[in-house]
């Protein structure tokens, strides 16, 4: 009989969330995949953005072996990860109004492009204004968030809205409020966050579906191969050459 260690409990919790999201978000995954396929086949650019630890799933999509070559990171200064000092500055900047629209206006994003906004809580000013301004600027928006925060917390934006209210498609990660999945006697706070695992898997599922939709249309999905396999570098150079206007991370 398997010992129920905390490690096993975390794996079980993550697997349960993955299965839940796979089943409940199937329709939204299909919608998001169609938006991506439409953008790619129409010559548009794809951007992904997230702040704090929500930046990790965004970065996981960019310049990734087996991934879509056209995904570009839309980085908002001071918020992409925890590389600023002090790390708490990033959290503070997420609540500053005007930062997201200014970043978008000074980016290569244009009408007809697609923006993926990732925010676990979806309650902070930055992701809300980023999605809102993107749609006003003619971009399509996919939001990746835990919809439960919209009923269990209050918005930090003056409008009282959440990220989910400003998207063409919403992908619900179903992560519990607070992110942590485990509690244990003698441990004072909930622990073992699963948002990165689930959100990365959810987005990779969307892009897998998008690749299939492109192939069905007779469009070769512009995927990257690992540079550590024979011929990978040459393959990637061809993809870059064919999609030079849509790939910005090489510039």
UniProtKB/TrEMBL annotation:
Domain SIS: 36-216
Superkingdom per UniProt: Bacteria
Molecular function GO labels: carbohydrate derivative binding
GO terms (BP aspect): carbohydrate derivative metabolic process
Any coiled-coil regions, as ranges: none
Cited Pfam families: SIS_2 (PF13580)
SUPFAM superfamilies: SIS domain
The protein's name: SIS domain-containing protein
Species of origin: Streptomyces sedi
């Amino acid at each position: 009989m398997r010992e129920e260690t905390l490690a096993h409990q975390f794996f079980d919790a993550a697997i349960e969330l993955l299965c839940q999201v796979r089943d409940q978000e199937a329709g939204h995954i299909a919608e998001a995949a169609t938006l991506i396929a439409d953008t790619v086949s129409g010559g548009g650019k794809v951007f992904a953005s997230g702040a704090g630890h929500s930046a990790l799933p965004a970065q996981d999509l960019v310049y990734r072996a087996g991934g879509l070559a056209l995904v570009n990171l839309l980085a908002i200064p001071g918020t992409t990860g925890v590389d600023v000092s002090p790390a708490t500055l990033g959290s503070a900047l997420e609540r500053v109004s005007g930062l997201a629209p200014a970043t978008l206006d000074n980016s290569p994003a244009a009408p007809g492009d697609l923006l993926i906004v990732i925010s676990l809580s979806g309650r902070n000013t930055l992701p809300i204004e980023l999605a809102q301004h993107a749609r006003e600027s003619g971009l399509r928006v996919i939001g990746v968030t835990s919809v439960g925060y919209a009923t269990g917390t209050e918005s930090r934006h003056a409008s009282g809205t959440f990220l989910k209210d400003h998207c063409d498609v919403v992908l619900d990660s179903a992560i519990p409020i607070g992110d942590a999945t485990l509690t244990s006697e003698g441990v004072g706070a909930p622990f073992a966050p699963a948002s990165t695992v689930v959100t990365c898997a959810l987005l990779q599922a969307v892009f897998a579906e998008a690749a299939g939709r492109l192939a069905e249309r007779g469009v070769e999905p512009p995927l990257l191969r690992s540079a550590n396999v024979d011929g990978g570098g040459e393959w990637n150079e061809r993809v870059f050459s064919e999609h030079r206007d849509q790939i910005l991370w090489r510039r």
